[in-house]
């Protein structure tokens, strides 16, 4: 479980399908392809992604969280966003051999 600290408070961060769908809905998008290549994600997208990932992580912990992209953007600094990008990459990178057989 990944966690991130914002303004002295620790939150669980989960970039699962629920978080991705919540981000797409909040941003008015309907295409997950823009999230597949990290270099195509705009810096302004990361606040919304982090908000959705915190909201989902906290839901899984049994706590209520309703952060918006604007709230995260106001509270998060460059260090927090850098940590989140690492978490995002780790949680969205396929694990294992992808079904390849030798």
Description:
The protein has 102 residues and is mainly alpha-helical. It has one domain. The chain has helices spanning 17-27, 43-60, 69-75, 78-92; strands at residues 2-6, 9-13. The mean pLDDT is 89.
Number of strands: 2
Q: In percent, how much strand structure appears in the residues?
A: 5-15%
Report the order of strands and helices.
EEHHHH
Mean pLDDT: 89
- The helix/strand class is mainly alpha
Rg estimate, integer Å:
14 Å
Gap from first CA to last CA: 32 Å
Q: Looking at the chains present, what oligomeric state does this protein adopt?
A: single chain
The percent range for helix content is 40-55%
Give the tags:
102 residues; mainly alpha; two-stranded antiparallel sheet; 2 strands; 10% strand; globular
Describe the secondary-structure layout:
Blueprint: E1 2-6, E2 9-13, H1 17-27, H2 43-60, H3 69-75, H4 78-92
Antiparallel strand pairs: 1-2
Helix pairs in contact: 1-2, 2-3
Offer a quick outline of the entry.
This protein has 102 residues and is mainly α. It is 50% helix and 10% strand. It is globular, with a radius of gyration of 14 Å.
């Amino acid at each position: 479980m990944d966690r991130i600290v914002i303004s002295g408070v620790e939150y669980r961060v989960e970039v699962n399908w629920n978080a991705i769908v919540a981000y797409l809905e909040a941003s008015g998008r309907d295409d997950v392809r823009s999230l597949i290549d990290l270099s195509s994600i705009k810096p302004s997208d990361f606040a919304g992604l982090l908000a959705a990932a915190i909201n989902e992580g906290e839901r899984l912990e049994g706590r209520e969280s309703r952060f918006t992209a604007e709230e995260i953007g106001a509270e998060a600094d460059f260090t927090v966003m850098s940590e989140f990008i690492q978490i995002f990459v780790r949680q969205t990178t396929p694990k294992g051999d992808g079904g390849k057989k030798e």
